[in-house]
Amino acid sequence: MEERLELAEARLRELIGELTGQKEDTNTEKTLPGDWRDFFVVQIELLLQLCEVREAIAAGNVSDAQYRDWNAALYREILPGQYEKSFCDPAKAVAVFGEETGRLLSAVAAEMRSAIPYAYEQETEPVLIRMEFLLELYTIVQTSFAEDGMEPEYAQMKDALYYFVSDYYETECERRVAQVVDASRSFARDLIEKSDLSDPGYLYRFGEYITENEIKLATYLANLPQERIDLMADTYTEGYRIGFINTGKDLSRKKTANIRYPLGFERVVKKAVENFERMGLQCTVYRATDSLFFGRGVQKNGFFGANPNKQYDYDHKEDLALILDGHLVNRRLECIEQGYIAYKEAAAGHAGPAVIDIFGDIPFEPQNKKEACHYDKEQQGLVARFRMENTRITNQYIPGEERSFTIIAFPVPSIGEQFEAIFNATIEINTLDYQKYQKIQAVLIDTLSGAAYMHVKGSGANRTDLTVALRIPEDPATQTAFENCVADVNIPVGEVFTSPVLKGTNGVLHVSRVFLDELEYKDLSLTFTDGMVSDYHCANFAEEEENRRYIEENVLFHHPSLPMGEAAIGTNTTAFVMARKYGIESRLPILIAEKTGPHFAVGDTCYSHEEDNKSYNPDGKEIIARDNEVSRLRKTEPKKAYFGCHTDVTIPYDELGLLEAIYTDGRRVPVIENGRFVLPGTEELNKAFED
Q1: Does residue 230 sit in the same domain as residue 130?
Q2: Is the domain of 277 the same as that of 373?
Q3: More confidently predicted of 486 and 140
Q4: Most exposed among 301, 349, 572, 671, judged by the fewest C-beta atoms under 10 Å?
């Protein structure tokens, strides 16, 4: 493989000489039109620079200044202001090469950029295969112009891209599975362990884009006393451990846990690694994906740096539409399963993810470009099928009933001048007295568990009018429909939730403004008929077709409909007041936002793939509402039971007019009125508003 890499690099160096006219006795620059020549020059120069990065790091003679220079040079092309001039922008590429060819070449340019992290990690094959693919594409183009004097056939270039993806799915999928479950792959963990975390210059060594935001965050954490770092890390890892205890799962059988986090939190992560090791768990820390093989998106899953340009990620999130068909979906699923088989023992010992989320970045309002790739109806069905099948395969080798997770969130400096105050307030929110909330939430559950319906109405401009059907326990003395959720897997404290009965769940869920996975939705409404989404709307774009497509792509994930998988009441009024105090409501992650009012999720239930495990509240009552009419199909038609998604939509307290429990005898018991808790025994929750 190293020999192939040397040959590919040598050929690319020859080509750059030919294309720029620096090499004598060649007419390549004459046979290849200027736009095509410019395209290949940009891609070749990037790949050659990655070869230099890779070789310099291997030699061990890279200065901090060189790492910073690489950071600026490698990401400059897609920064706002530069991106619009780049072939990575599908609008630019289509304007130059036409619709079909422009979209394909823009996707190719983005794929070349996906090789950047591998150069830092000293991975040979991922860099090599992209170099060889570019050389193949160049040969197709150059031959067509040299022999026929004509543009290359789109079909031939498309086939080359198709087989590039299909042929290398096997190695790419196996590598990805290994990154998740094999702790011997320790690039990030070793970097954290060996770096001087008091000097934020170490951040540039990850190969991610680094800005002042990450530098300021790392500097701030470097100056915190160790006991403050310990508090953050201990809250995070202890939540993970308690998650296993509360669900009756045996953590001692597990060998690895996966840490996912944004760069800048290395001091916390280093302490967390130590905590997990005391539990008997080695940590895997893998990079967020960014390629045709696994897709792109604004939301990152792994470790990641700053996002150079969220519009770039949004423009390329459906690039696979260029080549996606049933065979390619089957091929990817087969390769994912082969990857799990290759790491079967390690997968069985994997305990699940521990996630550090962030908030505070400037809200992103995407531009829907007609030039970008979009899945057609048939492909949307294939994508939905893939998500469901991928979830099934993952749960086969990392069983859901044996794993858990935890997630905690903190602000980043881009939130504004009050960053330090908000950070300290967030630590306090994350460490609230869970026993107090546990008692108050038990009062809510005593009222709601036994009701036939939960009725929710908005106030003011909020048009919510939703009736949610609830499962009624057969034995109220030993059973309950709602889970009393405190600070274990889902930090901070503050919600009670259930899996609704779909039949009889009807009405409209509406919020004036909400952020879901970093995307803004204005005037979002979801209509439910017997628990299934039957209509949807938002006001992000002028054209209704664009608004519907936006929801279809990013909330429904190309499913024709999704069930209501969760109905919940967030009780963390302290978090709500903190957000209002600092004016950061629009920047809260779902993790915290869902605790600041009633929320309803579309997609799988909270008990996905572990519905048959018994689970109990702190009072000893068994939680019986763990599935619905769709997830119950797991026993007869498992491919129809799960969707591989779960998206919470929260109604903030100040948009809430009424939440009441309705019983079979017609009684109605108000729980919240005009944004305040009115149920006797819950008044303590209103003190945050008063204070």
Answers
A1: no
A2: yes
A3: 140
A4: 301
What is the C-alpha to C-alpha distance for residues 123 and 135, in angstroms, rounded to an integer?
19
At 191-212, the pLDDT tens digits run 999 999 999 999 999 999 999 9
Residue 254 belongs to domain spanning: 187-203+210-402
Q: Is the pLDDT of residue 360 over 80?
A: yes
Quick: pLDDT tens for 164-193: 999 999 999 999 999 999 999 999 999 999
| 375 plus 447 within the same structural domain | no
304 and 394 part of one domain: yes
Distance (Å, rounded) from C-alpha 540 to C-alpha 537?
Answer: 9
Please list the residues that pair with 410 across neighbouring strands: 358
Residue 174 within a domain: no
Task: Pull the structure tokens for residue 290.
Answer: 């960014």
81 conformational bin, left if phi > 0, alpha if psi -120 to 50, beta if neither? left
Q: Is residue 178 part of a domain?
A: no
Give the H or E element holding residue 63.
Answer: none
Place of tokens 């689970």: 615
Q: Please, are residues 644 and 604 in contact by the beta-carbon 8 Å criterion?
A: yes
Phi and psi at residue 600, to the nearest 5°: -135, 130
The mean pLDDT value of the chain amounts to 94
Q: What 3-state DSSP class applies to 529?
A: strand
Q: Would you place residue 27 in the very low, low, confident or very high pLDDT band (cuts 50, 70, 90)?
A: low
| Global pTM value | 0.90
Average pLDDT over residues 503-512: 97
- The amino acid occupying position 477 is A
Do 386 and 439 fall within a single domain?
no
Amino acid at 668: R
- Contact present, 264 and 203 (Cβ < 8 Å): yes
DSSP string, 398-445: S-GGG---EEEEEE-GGG-TTHHHHHHHHHHHHT--HHHHHHHHHHHH
Q: Is 25 helix (H, G, I), strand (E, B) or coil?
A: coil
Q: Are 561 and 628 in contact, with CB atoms under 8 Å apart?
A: no
The burial class, CB within 10 Å (0-12 / 13-18 / 19+), for 465 is: middle
Q: Are 285 and 188 in contact (CB under 8 A)?
A: yes
Nearest to 146 by CA among 29, 40, 34: 29
Residue of 441, 429, 542 whose CA lies nearest to 482: 441
What residue type is 186 in one-letter code?
Answer: S
CA distances from 262 to 20, 66, 288 (A): 40, 23, 10
Spatial distance between the Cα atoms of 58 and 2, rounded to a whole number of angstroms: 13
Task: Report the alpha-carbon distance of residue 564 to residue 567 in Å, rounded.
Answer: 8
Tokens 């008044």, residue located: 683
Residues 639 and 491 in one domain: yes
List, for residues 52-97, the tens digit of each pLDDT value: 999 999 999 899 999 999 999 999 999 999 999 999 999 999 999 9
Residues 343 and 444 in one domain: no
Do 367 and 490 fall within a single domain?
A: no
Q: Where are the alpha helices (DSSP H) in 564-647?
A: 573-582, 590-593
396 CB neighbour count, 10 Å cutoff: 13
Tokens of 204: 């540039």
Three-class SS state of 452: coil
Q: Let me know if 664 is exposed, middle or buried by CB neighbors in 10 A (0-12, 13-18, 19+).
A: exposed
What total number of domains does the chain contain? 3
User: Using CA atoms, how far apart are residues 134 and 149, in angstroms rounded to an integer?
Assistant: 21
What's phi and psi for 238, nearest 5 deg? Answer: -65, -35
Does residue 159 belong to any structural domain of this protein? no
The answer as to whether 426 is a domain residue is no
Q: Check residue 628 and give its pLDDT.
A: 96
Domain end among 384, 402, 420: 402
Distance of CA 86 to the CA centre of its chain: 26
DSSP H helices in 513-663: 544-554, 573-582, 590-593
